Amino acid sequence: MYDPLMVQPLRDELTRVGFSELRTAEAMDALMAQKEKTSLVFINSICGCAAGVARPTVVGSLKNEILPENLTTAFAGNDVEAVARAREYFVGYPPSSPCMALFREGQLVHMIERHQIEGQTVEVLTKMLTSAYNKYCGEKIDESVEIYDPVAELQITVQEARERLSANSELALLDVRGPHEIERGKIEGALSVDNELGQQIVSSWPRDREIIVYCEHGDRSVQATQFLMQSGFENVHSLKGGFAVWSET
What we know:
Blueprint: H1 4-15, E1 20-21, H2 25-32, E2 38-44, H3 48-60, E3 70-75, H4 80-89, E4 99-104, E5 107-112, H5 114-117, H6 122-136, H7 150-154, E6 155-156, H8 158-167, E7 172-175, H9 179-182, E8 191-192, H10 195-204, E9 211-214, H11 219-230, E10 236-239, H12 242-248
Parallel strand pairs: 1-3, 2-3, 6-10, 7-8, 7-9, 9-10
Antiparallel strand pairs: 2-4, 4-5
């Protein structure tokens, strides 16, 4: 268990703006019994890389016009009983802290897990969270609202990639797969990214150069795309579905 004095300022960030703390399993059960209300359960954490972004996000989300009726939080590593019980209600999701869980009528309707928080900005995470508020926290569920997905904005389809390659001879196509994957085939003209090329790209490539990144199925290329954007590149995309989809078409 963390030193209570050490985590108290991290708790205060939320309680000072109206969050109620869940310290026991009974408190969590009592919250879930309020089926007529919408509730946000934020699992706070000591982790600086994720929680340091998550806390400002949930605080900033309170500027949204539509909000959950119950704003609650429990601290992983200190509110042990409450967090353990909360995870029983997070059906279908592995333990994750920090995380943000939104409930309506006693049912979990949206979850933002730690892996979605890491590497994101407060602005992006706030758009993700408030879009969930707008969909689920009104008088009725608003099916017209789409949950904001920052990954979708990074991706382009195979058809779009082919069109861009045809239109821009200076476009850089980066293959971030391993050597054993590349042996099975690659996209013509693609550059295989190793450590040396990666360092060269970050250190000397113009930030406005158009880049498409691909891997085998699209997960690693999203991470690489996010890294390049954080490094200042302005026109970079990940190939949706990766080489697996490209080779099928």
